[in-house]
Write a structure and sequence with these properties.
The complex is a heterodimer.
Chain A: H1 3-37, H2 39-42, E1 56-59, E2 74-80, E3 86-91, H3 99-102, E4 112-117, H4 127-140, E5 155-156, H5 162-171, E6 180-183, E7 189-192
Antiparallel strand pairs in A: 1-3, 2-3, 2-4, 5-6, 6-7
Helix pairs in contact in A: 1-4
Chain B: H1 2-28, H2 42-74, H3 77-84, H4 88-112, H5 114-124, H6 139-156, H7 164-178, H8 189-192, H9 195-201, H10 217-222, H11 245-254, E1 274-277, E2 280-283
Antiparallel strand pairs in B: 1-2
Helix pairs in contact in B: 1-2, 2-6, 4-5, 4-6, 5-11
The chains are: A alpha+beta, B mainly alpha.
Chain lengths: 198, 293
């Protein structure tokens, strides 16, 4: 093979591989964006009762349940990292969240940084749907959001979920520096130590 | 309306980008020399490309998302937790190997079960392989294939956006192995796969082997690896299929549910009866496939 032909063939391979890399990057970006931005629109349920269109309610106490809170609804607790305020979101599973829903105070710079599912109710959809919906909303708003969607039974490390400590302290007499948080099936947070008998 | 315009632009850009990637490769390293860009049935494959990008991808994606969410509900939390506790690279390796395993057996099922073959035969009806022919696929066949490939990731509980890169890579790899390319990578093809392996899968025999998606590992393990050092004489199937897009989409619903008779001169090429000859495996007890020039 002539050197020129060889060089040409190498150039073709390099160019094609580079372009293929660009293609994969673009395609994966599009896919990732679609998986988060299109799902909310496709969720079948749209809240039809105006009372449920208030997903975030600022509470002075973490255990304060608003009177309109439906028993069948899924609960979410959100913690504002900066203000250490507990926000509560209540929605039907599968609900679609518009951008105006997510931030309870649009003028505020505070961003909810943690989202917790505190329980699963029978007949409702998985947490994944709602988590995706909220992530998409945040992405549309171009706001960086550190968020956890936690199922019952999930174990959360303390460094992943520091704000929860505040809630736990306010809720129970557990030690302030627990090692693991466990979300139980009934939606309550428990603390477990990896080494209970040191 | 804006969404449609964006979709059309994205489809156009995808076409241009894929052509820029694969056409030079097909010219520099042709598997079948002399195959023109506008070869027979090019327009039919273009219809499949446009249909896939403009219509069916959204439908496939919708089904995948719903399937993923449903599967997520079915899996026990303890399992997801155990998976998530592993290092990420172990999870990645597990997903890739399991994906290959699932798609390998799913693909064999497509060839052996007449109902699935009705849909999959559309893909195999292409008589000329290049990067565009890769898109000739019935939408229901696509849902089946993409679902199987991503099933392990869904079972493990990976969100779709997390595995988007893997999906995209597998997508372009699928285009690559259909392209009219034969790169001189030698024995590496037995490890990473190559277009010529998949070209043999598109041999006119319905049981031609090479069912794996990326690495031929599964074919080697289960005895369906085929690697002659030449291209198959002909691609396609023995069954008659419509020559137009709509006809091909409807074909699985009207075709008789009978296994298609094989051409008498072509027999199954199975690795069980193969011996290694250099980097190739030739059948020694069965008749050889038709040799190309």
């Amino acid at each position: 093979m002539k050197p020129r032909t060889f060089a040409l063939k190498v150039a073709v391979i390099c160019t094609s591989v580079s372009l293929a890399g660009v293609f994969v990057l673009l395609q994966s970006g599009v896919l990732a964006n679609r998986s988060t931005s299109e799902i909310p629109r496709r969720l079948p349920y749209q809240p039809d009762d105006s009372v449920y269109k208030r997903p975030f309610v600022t509470l002075t106490r973490a255990d304060g349940i608003p009177p309109w809170y439906p028993a069948w609804a899924r609960q979410y607790l959100s913690f504002d990292n900066q203000r250490r305020q507990t926000l509560m979101l209540s929605s039907k599973s599968g609900a679609s969240f518009g951008p105006h829903w997510v931030d309870p105070a649009p003028s505020s710079s505070a961003v909810p940084t943690t989202l917790l599912s505190t329980g699963e109710l029978p007949g409702l959809k998985s947490v994944v749907d709602t988590r995706m919906a909220i992530e998409a909303t945040e992405r549309q708003r171009e706001r960086k959001l550190l968020m956890y969607s936690v199922k019952a039974g999930a174990i959360i490390k303390p460094d992943q979920l520091e704000p929860v400590i505040d809630l736990l302290v306010s809720h129970s007499s557990t030690p302030p520096q627990p090692s693991l948080f466990v979300v139980s099936g009934n939606g309550k947070l428990h603390v477990e130590h990896p080494n209970p008998h040191p | 309306m804006i969404h449609l315009v964006r979709l059309a632009i994205a489809t156009g850009l995808t076409f241009v980008l894929l052509a820029l990637i694969f056409r030079p490769l097909e010219l520099a390293f042709p598997a079948k020399r002399g195959q023109k860009f506008l070869r027979p049935q090019w327009w039919l494959d273009l219809c499949f490309f446009l249909g896939q990008n403009l219509f069916w991808t959204s439908a496939v994606f919708y089904v995948l998302v719903r399937f993923s969410a449903w599967l997520d509900q079915c899996m026990p939390y303890g399992f997801h937790h155990a998976v998530a506790m592993q290092p990420w690279w172990i999870q990645a390796v597990e997903v890739v190997i399991l994906s290959d395993f699932f798609i390998y057996w799913g693909h064999r099922l497509q060839h052996n079960w007449n109902f699935l073959w009705r849909f999959h035969s559309i893909h195999h009806s292409a008589e000329h392989l290049d990067w565009l022919a890769a898109h000739r696929e019935h939408p229901l066949d696509t849902i089946y294939t993409v679902g199987l490939i991503n099933l392990p990731a869904f079972i493990f509980g990976f969100p779709l956006e997390t595995i988007a890169g893997l999906i995209a890579f597998r997508g372009i790899w699928a285009v690559y192995i259909h392209s009219n390319v034969r790169l001189p990578i030698g024995p590496l093809r037995a490890i990473i796969g190559a277009p010529e392996l998949h070209h043999w899968h598109h041999d006119r025999s319905r049981d031609a082997g090479n069912y794996a998606n990326i690495s031929p590992l599964m074919d080697l393990l289960f005895g369906t690896y085929v690697n002659p050092d030449h291209e198959p004489a002909e691609f396609g199937i023995t069954e008659k299929t419509p020559g137009n897009y709509i006809g091909q989409l409807l074909h699985p619903f009207v075709v008789k549910n009978e296994r298609i008779s094989e051409l008498p001169e072509i027999e199954t090429v199975s690795c069980r009866n193969c011996v290694p000859t250099g980097n190739s495996l030739f059948p020694v007890t069965e008749s050889k496939p038709i040799l190309s020039d």
